[in-house]
Amino acid sequence: MNDSETNLVTAYIGLGSNLANPSEQIKTARTAIAQLAGVQELVFSSLYHSPPMGPQDQPDYVNAVMCVATDLPPMDLLRGLQRIENDQGRVRKDQRWGARTLDLDVLIYGDQIIDLPDLIVPHTGLAERAFVLYPLHEIAPQLLVPGKGRIADLLVKCPMNGLKRLD
Q: What is the pTM assigned to this prediction?
């Protein structure tokens, strides 16, 4: 990490898995993210169990949200997360919302709104997804989501839809 606190950005990362022991996949990813150069874990949510968002002929998911301080630019953070996904056996298929060993998403990066071909922040769908909003609210109940509003207000409009906290 940089010695200068002014260069640090608070970012939120979504973690999800529904293959190959999902809870362990999430725990392993948490450790790997915290070990990325330029990244420091600040807070980690509980694990949550959720039904799949896409095709229903796949196992349920385990999800969590991690808050980090980073001096990495957003695309470098994304590339680091993609390396972790690949290291944990992620296979990218054409099917959207299919089963996966690990899915890591940059949900929020400081107060920035980013719209690039490979990275949209705040993450697309963040405001409607219980498996993101509830763990995010757990660790940052006062959070203001750039361009979307207060996390507490977003949560009120988002039913749990089968989401269950695991601990």
A: 0.92
